[in-house]
Amino acid sequence: MRQRAILITIAVLIWLSSVGAERGELIPRDTSVDTSGMELMYTTAYCLHGTTATGGQTRPGIAACNTHLGEVALIYKEDGSYLGAYEITDTGATEGLKNGTVIDVWKANKTHCKGWMKVTGGRVYVQWVKGDG
């Protein structure tokens, strides 16, 4: 668990450096980034409560995707606006999740799932952060 917390911290630091946050700024002024080096993916949202593929409980900040892509996904809207860091703790059963073309984020309820889909339009850019083992 400690290793995952460190990985998420590193992911957030990478994001902060990519948006040009000045020293001491908690929220960067410019929250859009160049998405040219990122992977464009379809996105969905789920709100099932229970156990994930890795054995943990569903909770905010997790997502389902092909686990070979990375351990943490930094997700951006198509315009480059940052949406959040999501730990990949679930795999899902659909073909898109298995082959790595879809990332499915966990939300607390159906209203939040619908909100995610409205905000993203079903497509996001993903910057992958991989662990060291």
Summarize the structure.
With 133 residues, the protein is α/β, with parallel strands linked by helices.
What does this structure look like?
- With 133 residues, the protein is an alpha/beta fold.
- The chain has one domain: RlpA-like domain (Barwin-like endoglucanases).
- Helices cover 25% and strands 28% of the residues.
- It has three helices and six strands, in the order αββββαβαβ.
- It has helices spanning 2-18, 95-99, 110-120, and strands at 39-46, 62-64, 72-76, 82-90, 102-106, 123-129.
- It has a six-stranded mixed β-barrel.
- The two termini are 13 Å apart.
Topology:
Blueprint: H1 2-18, E1 39-46, E2 62-64, E3 72-76, E4 82-90, H2 95-99, E5 102-106, H3 110-120, E6 123-129
Parallel strand pairs: 1-5, 2-4
Antiparallel strand pairs: 1-6, 2-5, 3-4, 3-6
Q: Provide the CATH top-level class.
A: Mainly Beta
CATH architecture: Beta Barrel
- Count of discrete structural domains: 1
Overall mean confidence score, pLDDT: 83
Outline: globular
| CATH H-level homologous superfamily name | RlpA-like domain
Taken in chain order, the helices and strands follow as HEEEEHEHE
User: Given the helix and strand composition, which structural class is it?
Assistant: alpha/beta
Query: Count of helical segments?
Result: 3
Radius of gyration: 14 Å
Low-pLDDT runs of 5+ residues are: 16-29
Straight-line distance between termini: 13 Å
Q: Please state how the strands of the largest beta sheet are arranged side by side.
A: 1-5-2-4-3-6
Helix coverage percent:
10-25%
